[in-house]
Amino acid sequence: MTARLVQLEKHPLVIDLLTKCDFPLAGTKISCAVSGGPDSMALLILATASGCEVTAIHVDHGLRTDSENEFQIVEKLATELGAQFNSRTIKIEQGTNLEARARTARYEVMPHDVMTGHTADDQAETVLINLLRGAGLSGLAGMQRNQRHPILALRRTQTHQLCRELKIEVVEDPTNTNPKFQRNRIRHELIPLMDAISQRDVAAILDRQADLFREDSMLLDDLAKKIDVTDAKLLAAAPIALARRAIRQWLTEIYPPDAATVERVLDVARGTTLACEIGSNREVRRSQQRLQIFTN
């Protein structure tokens, strides 16, 4: 154990924040995605202070001219804390859906169970983004509270405070304030406006609502799993909310369907039509009261 880690483990704020986190047992080997920003650096600090054997993974997207130097900031802290460090470089071309493409590429080069530094504020933003996209209950449930998101109960103010009090050098990403990205406008414009209108801390409310939505969604998922989705008559007679969810669970084995696809499959189950396209060169057909997926 390094001297720096011993010092951090005794810090009152570290001790307090760890009580709100969801890390596995001490000694467990874990990977943390660490960009160098305050949230991910707080994740690295708290993960090592929890006693886990941590590997910090930094991914350089090559989107900024000085980004290749940012890994050194992460590597320095990882070394001080006795964590392993791994740096990956990927190439993302400028263009549409840059945020989504960068996120997808980032996760493709990291372990599937990598931990992220998402906070309750990120959860609130995610709920609003999904709401604006027309997502259903599952989308409004936001991110799962599990060991993939161990600091999800923390607020962004707390992760920033942790880095300030411990005098941790962090990376300031200018894209986090760029208004061309939807999440940034929600973070810097929409949520402050909602705070002002409601005179309340909206992020905290949305975070709690996500938990309620998730509990409801999990219950509906369990009920939907009891429906034989290939039985057209049974599916057509089921409560509409469960029927839609059963279809979504079925088709997600191929790819997550949109709402229009789910409705087309329901029409097939009801006998309105004999078949419908579901994408990926596949279609659902009804024959002798059974639904089947065929490849075209």
UniProtKB/TrEMBL annotation:
A GO CC term assigned to this protein in UniProt: cytoplasm
Alphabetized CDD domains for the sequence: TilS_N
One Pfam short name: TilS
Record protein name field: tRNA(Ile)-lysidine synthetase
Catalytic activity: cytidine(34) in tRNA(Ile2) + L-lysine + ATP = lysidine(34) in tRNA(Ile2) + AMP + diphosphate + H(+)
The keyword 4Fe-4S appears for this protein: no
Domain annotation tRNA(Ile)-lysidine synthase substrate-binding: ranges: 234-291
Organism: freshwater metagenome
HAMAP family named among the record's database cross-references: tRNA_Ile_lys_synt
